[in-house]
Amino acid sequence: MTTPTAPGQLRRGIGVWGLAAAILNGMIGAGVFALAGSVAHFSGSWAPLVVLIVGLALLPVVLVFAALAGLFDETGGPILYVDAAFGPIAGFQTGWVQCLSTLASAAANANLLADYLLRVVPSWNGAIWHGAIVFAALGLALAINLLEARRSAVWLQRVSVGKLVPLAVLLALALPPITGSPSMLAAGEWSLPQAVLLSVYAFTGFEGALSIAGEAREPRRDFPRAMIGVFVAVAALYALPPWAMSRRPMPPARSTKPRC
Questions:
Q1: How far is CA 188 from the centre of its chain?
Q2: Crossing angle of helices 127-146/149-173, nearest 10°?
Q3: Do the Cβ atoms of 63 and 232 come closer than 8 Å?
Q4: Per residue in 111-165, pLDDT tens?
Q5: pLDDT value of position 10
Q6: Across 17-21, 132-136, 215-219, 234-238, which has the greatest mean pLDDT?
């Protein structure tokens, strides 16, 4: 049920599941399908631990945002928080930084999505197809954001399911290796800073959903719960694929006994 609002104000129609979907989509982009392999490439069997340590290190930041979300119910998110603490000039600068960050991450994820699709359909190879996929992905995101709040939240939930289903299938296929004996996964190019940087990038984006607080029914109550719950779930989701990769059964050792 939508909370009644006065004329000229945003309609508060997004519940806790809609907020959770917005946070999830802010954190999980197309890059999640490359995260496991990329982090494992730079850290080998240490990849799951790297992901979890980075998530644990960022958890205090998430808790701060969750606490701030419990103090405000207006639209703006980080812009609103900085404006209230340091004034409108700092808030204005924060808004531009957030805008540039959102544009860069959206462009990177759309570009990566195009790369994946072109690998699946090699006949579409070429700059024209690549650009068309990027514009289609960005156009779909724009169309969803232009919808009325409740309808936009429903579409965000559908997009979340579309992201989680292939990941669930991937993890289901990885169950046999997980239950097998562990093996050491060698890093293709050992670089702990690169692995940490990739993991930090993967965890960012949760703060973007705070900007829609003015369209949430109970933002002070629902945002902290949704933010902490989604962050912990995403941390586990990020750590499972590289963990499965590191537990692939080792190939049988070749016998050194001379043949007769």
A1: 25
A2: 130
A3: no
A4: 888 888 888 887 877 888 999 999 998 898 888 878 777 777 788 778 888 778 8
A5: 72
A6: 132-136
Main-chain dihedrals φ then ψ at residue 157, nearest 5 degrees: -65, -40
Distance CA 104, CA 98 (A): 10
Number of neighbouring beta carbons within 10 Å of residue 208 = 19
Query: What is the residue extent of each domain of the chain?
Result: 16-85+150-246
Angle, CA 250 vertex, CA 241 and CA 172 arms, to 5°: 30
Amino acid at residue number 137: A
Tokens of 238: 């990020």
Distance CA 221, CA 3 (A): 14
For the entire predicted model, the pTM comes to: 0.73
Q: Is the dihedral of CA 46, 251, 188, 174 positive or negative?
A: negative
Amino acid identity of residue 20, one-letter, is A
The amino acid at 4 = P
- Does the pLDDT value for residue 173 go beyond 70? yes
Contacts from 97-103 at CB under 8 Å and sequence distance 24+? 98/207, 98/208, 98/211, 102/208
Place of tokens 């544009």: 103
Residue with tokens 């989680």: 164
Closest CA to 250 of 169, 181, 174, 202: 181
Is pLDDT of 174 > 80? no
Three-state SS for 250? coil
- Three-state DSSP class for residue 183: coil
Residues above pLDDT 70, as percent of the chain: 82
Whole-number Å distance between alpha carbons of 197 and 187: 16
